[in-house]
Amino acid sequence: MRKRKSLLALIGIVALLLSLSVPMMQCAPATEEEVTPPPEEEEATPPAEEEVTPPAEEIKYGGRLNVGFMSPQNSTVIDGKLMWTNWGCLYFLLIYDNLAHFNMLPGDTYAFWPKLVQSYEVSEDGTTWTLHLVENATWHDGVPFTAEDVAFTFEYLFQTPGWGGHLTSFEEIEVIDDYTIRVVHDIELPTTNTPGWWMWNPVIPKHIIEPYKDDILSFQNEESIGTGAFKLKEFKSGQYMWLVANEDYWDGRPYVDEVVFRYYGSVDTAIMAMQKGEVDVFGENMITPFAVEAVKGDPDINVSVLQGLREVYLAFNLHPDGPLQDKDVRHAIAYGIDRDRLIDMAFGGYGERCDSWAYPESPMHKPDLPQYDYNPDKANEILDGAGYLDTDGDGIRNDPATGKNLVFELSTSSTMSPYVKACTLVHEMLPAIGIDTEVTIMEPDAFMDYLYNPEADQTELMIYHEAPSPDPWSDWVWQECVGWGSGGDWWNPSYYDNPRFNQLWVDNSSAKSMEEKKAILYEMQDLLAEDLPIIFLARPKYISPYRIDKFEGWVHEMGGTVSWLNDWSILKVHLK
Fold it and tell me: Which of 11, 218, 306, 458 would suit a FRET pair with 554, their CA atoms being 20 to 30 Å apart?
């Protein structure tokens, strides 16, 4: 019997982009080798009078799938920060295994899709979960996978900073037998978002990592032994990762023999690599509407325009004292931004407005939220009424408390050219309401440090994105607005802290029906729309080019042909 109690919070994934400063790859894995498909078995000749159905065409095995990224992976340490990038998420999905698949079937995303967990039972009050595990999985080194590995993952990985479950605490873990585990929680968990809390994180091997259990981040993990469909063959930090098919994968080996993730330092370089056949698909939303024109018309390249996962926002740093603490100032800035123009100019028209962490198509989206349509006259009226006047006649309003001009630093990452353009547009728009900005374009590592560390007071306005993911896996994103000290530490870039919102975040974790859950999330959306710690700017479309000359079987999902929650293309694609 194992006992542990801890409030765990799921990390934001989202697909955060890092490190333009890492040099472009100078070397690559060895030459691609082809694998001859196994010969067909000889079949007996049927009786002449029977009609014979011709066999289905055999799917070919072999080939190397090349996936391009603009956010490199710099380590194989089992650090939750790896899941800040699509590359890192796919590393965990392909080399390790989650307890359940991300089910992306249209209209059926709430259905359970088994992976390491094949089936489960849950008590009526949602506190006790019995998980039945796959019985034929092995680690890449041949050691059998068992319930001991799952218990070890819960007890130690989930206790490591940056990891955790879905706003849940467990007080007891019982290994019933090699393939059954029971987890008892001290709070009631919802069954409305099944599989929910236990499916997100990779399961790690106890027999390898146990010596490092008290400091998992000290384990370099260079061999990356998992149970997944691919094994790590070679990794060059910031350059490439070379994976090979796991011939003994418990769920059947993938069709491709190899997958290579490569880092490219710019969109132009990545596009040229695809045109030359060096990249088959991109693993993140790195192709802008303006860059995609370069591949249109190429008979070997298709381009899909898919619904996006990302919601681009402007966050206010509410930690320091100052005008941004004033809700009137935040409301005025919202009315001072022409979001339709921003979508046209920064995203080439490939996008739509958004107003909540809940996607418009989600049943949890509140349909009547304030829209803050572009209205500089209303913004000026709000600021006048709040006492922010231009007292020195220079065209910029002054803070009535200090007399200082309303000038705010506006930052984003240098790797995100649409966001750089969005910063420029906001800088051009806000003087019409008497507010100025100083735009700072930062290297991605530095920007991320500032974005998720509002207490450092290094910046005041930040443009970036989050990718909530479809229901039922989107509950974690509300953590981005939970107060520091109440569960939002390091995931709340605005430093927003509303006690009612914090309590609703907890209540949502134990909702017993879809109706109760909807009422909770509706109120959370109302609070965010009124308090406005962030301004939702746009939901860009996902522009997904992919080569069709060598492979077929691509799986196109919301967020991309390949993305942080869509590994299906890599698992299903095969030679033509």
Answer: 11
